[in-house]
Amino acid sequence: MVSAPFFWRFAADMGCGRFVIAGSDATRVMVRASRGFVDRVLLPEFTELEGALQVYLHEVTLRVIREEIYDDASDAQEVPDALPSH
Q1: pLDDT per residue over 72-86, tens digit each?
Q2: How far is CA 77 from the centre of its chain?
Q3: Are 6 and 50 in contact (CB under 8 A)?
Q4: Cβ neighbours of residue 2 under 8 Å, at least 6 residues apart?
Q5: Quick check: 37 pLDDT over 90?
Q6: Residue range 34-40: average pLDDT?
Q7: What is the pLDDT of residue 60?
Q8: Helices of type H across the chain
Q9: Which of 54-85 are b and which e, b meaning 16 or more Cβ less than 10 Å from the residue's Cβ?
Q10: Contact criterion met (CB below 8 Å) for 25 and 41
Q11: What is the pTM of this model?
Q12: How much is the pLDDT for 1?
């Protein structure tokens, strides 16, 4: 999962205090910031950047699959028509 580590770093870059509550789940990300800052700045900007990161990672994944994994389709059987519909 990319979102939690990305948010952790993004929050630090935005000047938020980051912490983990002793004994809590290590995947829980806690930040110290005002509610207004979180609602108006931190979450909207993070959501936009995280969406762009997901699109980028999806495009890279497809490119790697296309160029490195399935580059050679010479042994694939060619069929004249698509499967019949029911």
Answers
A1: 656 666 666 666 565
A2: 35
A3: yes
A4: 50, 53, 54, 57
A5: yes
A6: 94
A7: 92
A8: 3-13, 35-37, 43-64
A9: eeeeeeeeeeeeeeeeeeeeeeeeeeeeeeee
A10: no
A11: 0.65
A12: 52
What residues have CB less than 8 Å from 21, skipping those under 6 apart? 28, 30
Q: What is the pLDDT of residues 52-68, one digit of tens each?
A: 999 999 999 988 888 88
Give 7: exposed, middle or buried? Use CB within 10 Å, 0-12, 13-18, 19+.
buried
Residues 58, 63, 64, 65, CA torsion sign: positive
Q: How far apart are CA 51 and CA 82, in angstroms?
A: 34
User: Which amino acid is residue 46, in one-letter code?
Assistant: F
The DSSP code for 73 is: -
Q: How far is CA 51 from the centre of its chain?
A: 7
